[in-house]
């Protein structure tokens, strides 16, 4: 027999259950908030204060000094120009790819989807090395004379962010009701007019969301710009690094960090509004089932739109995505004495003239250990955030708090990893008055990488949790299920579909993270991206060959992880 409730009334019993649920959800939100506060808000806030405070008082002289330099305005102009041009090109070439990979059925689509996502998770240093190889005078595109130019930086940014547009726009397009466009076609509108007047306006929320995220990534790019552009085509991100490591001007770096935070806030606000519009459009307009059409490339049903989509996507995949990667692979087998495995054999050494403190293999193992630790932290923290934010509370104040939590945890997605790493060095020497120096702790690099990876975990798991019918939770609660049992029986079986993709993204991003790690890694415990960058900066064909071989190995590990997670994700609806 079911035990009777000991409360005096059913209302009292319900109040007790409500307090229990509130305590559980409060703890679920408190853990990630504490993590974000200590390892993101504190370092970034301390860095920002450096720009406003001097000698214990408010002092805006640093802003006047930094903005009085022509170099600063040149850097800001280059940042905005590279981000704007890179975003525009990524959107233009990404829309045909989104149509082809998410609206059409053809053999090999799954493999092509998996390949397209690889550039996004590749370490930025590897991307820089790949484009330097393909654009060098001896490279396959050397005739363009783009090496070290603005065009090279933009091409690399498009390479890196193409998948963001394809997945964001394609995921929306896959659920877009085609009947409106079919009605326009039946009324006599040609295909191009039906697309421009019906489909394209319907895709606007997804395009705006993708464009804002791509602009954010382009504006905060670090490794790609540092390797390809150097000091001639730097951004605010690389300038922070230069002012800190070369000029030792911490005040100027802090002022530039404030400038970057303003750009990030605007971009994130735009992305948040666009994402909300996209989610509302899907909820209001998604049909029960959308049939994907087969490609029509020949015969009486041949479509000019399909031919255009295939042509643009083929050029992008072959020239922009595959060619740089293949070039790095081929050149990694070229040694000063001919073709062979010499560069890979040298990975067991410290390079020419002892360029490194450890061997490349030791740095690779260190990267793997750090990435595992960072992935565990990112999945735990990001999973808790996604779980809390996915709730649909009835109270207006609670709903606002949930939306605020979602927005707050997107900040690390846009704030530069360089800013986070720099902030760690400033703020974690006796944080909160504690007699401990966290800057020397071995977990500091995994924590920094987890801060960078957590937003991607949230954005991967959150759409899946939000898709769960709230009536399932209500029914379980009415039947007396505890919050833990509801999570285990209702949320977990569905959220597990996206967990593999979340783990893969977090691991790949952590494995290739360079911005924060470049500040925090010790010479005797470097990561693989840091080692690759050091080898590139050392003279000698031996060091360059080792950098290429290490880049190939890092790219293969990253690609393998993403291919595995794409196969295991079982239809997860993750997004960027």
UniProtKB/TrEMBL annotation:
Regions that span the bilayer: 21-42, 75-102, 114-135, 150-174, 195-228, 248-271, 307-330, 370-389, 401-428, 443-462, 498-521, 544-564
GO terms under cellular component: plasma membrane
InterPro entries: MetI-like, MetI-like_sf
Species classification: Bacteria, Bacillati, Actinomycetota, Actinomycetes, Micrococcales
Coiled-coil residue windows: none
Main location: membrane
Family (UniProt): Belongs to the binding-protein-dependent transport system permease family.
Pfam family for this entry, one: BPD_transp_1
Gene Ontology terms: biological process: transmembrane transport
Origin: domain of life: Bacteria
Name of the protein in question: Iron ABC transporter permease
Protein topology in the membrane: Multi-pass membrane protein
Localization (cell): Cell inner membrane; Cell membrane
Limits of the ABC transmembrane type-1 domain: 76-267, 364-565
Keywords attached to this entry: Cell inner membrane, Cell membrane, Membrane, Transmembrane, Transmembrane helix, Transport
